[in-house]
C-alpha cells in the first residue's frame, strides 16, 4: 500500500496548524475537553525545538489555525505575539517532544473514559479490537502530584520509550503520533477501548472476556501492517469534513 497524498510532500506549518486546530475541535465535539485545560501540541516543520499549542484561556472549540502559539520545549512563547500559554501544562509535552523527535503530535487529555481507565490497576485489557491495536503499545506512569519537575519528566519519557502512549495513573491518557491524524486516531481508539471495557466490567461484575496475549499481539501486527499506512491516513479527510460541517472556522 502506498502512503496517501498528504504524506508524499513535505509538511508545511500551515498544514500542521490546520490539522492541529481540527484536532482541538474534534476533541471538543467528542467531549474530551476539560474546560481550558489539557493540551494538544505539534512540531513546526523546519523549526527545530519549536512547537504549536493552544492559547491559554481558550476552549478547545475556540481554537483556530492562526491562533495557535509557537513555544519552545519549556513552554516559552517564541513567536513575538505575547499570547499566554500554560507552561506547567506544556511540561509533559515539551519533555516528550524533546525525547521523541520522531513524533509530530502529542495529545494529553482528561477524557472521561480514559481517566476512569487510569484508576484501574490492570489498565487496558485485550477485550476489543480497539484495545488489541494498543496491546503492548501503552506504558504507565504513576501519579506524582501536580508538579512535573525535571526528574519526573525524565521518568515520563523513559516510560513512554518508543510506545504509542501512556496511561497516566489517577490522571488521564496520552498518545503520540508521527502526524496529528495518527495521534488523534490513537486517542480515539484508546478512549473507545476504555469505554467498552469499563461498560462491560460494570455489566458483568468485573468479569470480561479477554483475548489471549498471543491473539492480541497478532491483531496488533495485522492492524499496523507493513507500516506504510498510519492510523489516521484513511480517516483524516472525513474527519476534516466533519469539523468543517460542525465546527467551522478552525482553518482561519
Secondary-structure map with pairings?
Elements lengths: L12 H17 L9 E5 L7 E3 L15 E3 L15 H13 L5 E5 L2 H6 L11 H5 L4 E4 L8 H11 L4 E4 L3 E6 L2 H24 L9 H12 L11 H11 L6
Parallel strand pairs: 5-6
Antiparallel strand pairs: 1-2, 1-4, 2-3, 4-7, 6-7
Helix pairs in contact: 1-8, 2-5
Can you describe what's shown?
The chain is 39% helix and 12% strand. The chain has 252 residues and is an alpha+beta fold. It is globular, with a radius of gyration of 18 Å.
Sequence of secondary-structure elements: HEEEHEHHEHEEHHH
Overall shape: it is globular
**Widest sheet: strand ordering:** 3-2-1-4-7-6-5
Number of helices: 8
User: What is the typical, i.e. mean, pLDDT?
Assistant: 94
Biggest sheet statistics? 7 strands, mixed
Query: Helicity range of the residues?
Result: 25-40%
Question: Which secondary-structure class do the elements indicate?
Answer: alpha+beta
Count of individual beta strands: 7
How much of the sequence is in beta strands?
A: 5-15%
Distance between the termini: 33 Å
**Roughly how many Å is the radius of gyration?**
18 Å
Low-confidence stretches: none
Essential attributes:
252 residues; alpha+beta; 8 helices; 39% helix
Structure summary:
The protein has 252 residues and is an alpha+beta fold.
